[in-house]
Design a protein that fits this description.
By secondary structure, the protein is mainly α. It is built from 21 helices and no strands.
Amino acid sequence: MASLVGSFLSFILHPEEAYSLLSLKRRSMVQARNLSPDPNWQFCYEFLNKVSRSFAMVIMELGEELRNPICVFYLILRGLDTVEDDTRISPKERAVLCKDFYKVLRQKGWHTEKHGSGAEKELLKNFHIVIDCFGGLAEPYQNVIVDITQRMGSGMAKYISSHECKTVSEYDEYCYYVAGLVGIGLTRMFAIVDAVDPTFCSKEYLSNSMGLFLQKTNIIRDYLEDIEEGRTFWPREIWELYASKLEDFKDPANMEGATRCLNHLVTDALRHVPDCLEYLAGAKDPKVFNFVSIPQVMAIATLAECYDNPKVFCCKVKVRRGVTAKLVMKSTNMKNIYQIFYRYAVSIRDRIPPQDPNASQTRQALDTIIAKCMSYVPVTPDLTLANRVSLLLFAVLSAYLLHRRKENAGEGTIWRRGGVPQACDVLAVVAFFAVMIYLLTFFGLQFVKPQYNSESTN
């Protein structure tokens, strides 16, 4: 009930988000109709939605050539991740399973009921279906998936017995194995259909940054969940500057140190943004652009929610559903992406605590992002929504006042000399003239070509 009330209030306060949510729902219905009727593929997409709705949404919008390979790629890596996370098995045994997981992709009929829980357990129980779908992919896609699965499994095995990242370098390496390699594999798949800049396959640091930015955002946001499950991904080199134990950040008495550590980690994540923007600018296929851009804008929005926010240490911080829908609907071209990153970078910069020990580094990282985006941010504001609301109010108030004039004809009211006008009539007249002033002053700006901070409008 509380969530329903919250959603209702959100729509009242942010009516434009309701339109975005409805549009997004309509898009998902169209996606579902475009899926293959083959029962094996139906299973894959069903479980893709069960294990990750956010990635399912962007994967299902891809063209058919890429959609199936990337769906299988994600499910295979999810299966590997489930094995790695199964702490009921000894670290030594898990390390062997992770290293050899790529081999099961060539073993028709392979499945297991030993690992995971919920949807992940069901996925591995029916993994032979995923393997069948993998076998039906074109050989170039199979080669990429096997290679990335092998490299990721070996990397995961390296960190199974470690239990933590001690240095920032180890933190970067861990994120490379679990997320950077995903970006590298996806880039190689995109290159097969010429959907990205062909030089990106040799610029693995760009693909790696795409993965690291997403993974670090998740690690920052999921502090409480990971601590309660015995996982410690925050690097010791950073957190030990603010506490003797990582668990101490849950104590409200340590909130100052906790938020300073949080801000430090957000600053570290922000250094990957310039590479991410460069990568996004090189995506040539519109559907691939949407696929890679949506997670990135959600990451910067999530970091903005997390920055200097003590709620990270007591609950899971999320971007409001309506905001998510708006970001998804707007992530259609590079100009919009620059504007989104600019807005969130400015939002974080405006909230930097002066006493924060990393304030100058945070400001420098954000200034770099802002400078990269500045050329694509219009000087004139977007008044589309305000103009629509004003026209609606003009129509409603006009109808009301005309009705009141007709209703009170011949009486001593606000429309004739003498008499005492009713308060609602006075408010309606004031509101009507306020709307008229707005329309006369600002309405025409929507027909003026937006001016930018420079002539570069890639």
